[in-house]
Amino acid sequence: MFSWFDGRAKRVEIIPRLTTRGERPSTTKVDIKDLTPELLPFLGQSAYFELGVFESLARAVAIAPDLAAKQALSTAAGRALSKHQGLVAEIRRRGAEPADVMAPFVPALDAFRAEISGADWTELLLSCYLAGGLLDDFFIRLSDGLPGEVGPRVAHLLGEDAGTAILATQLAAAIAADAPLASHLALWGRRLVGDTLLIARSALAFAGTPDPSGVVLAAGPTEERIEPVFTELIAAHTRRMDGLGLTA
Question: Which Pfam families has this protein been placed in (predicted)?
Answer without folding.
Answer: MiaE_2
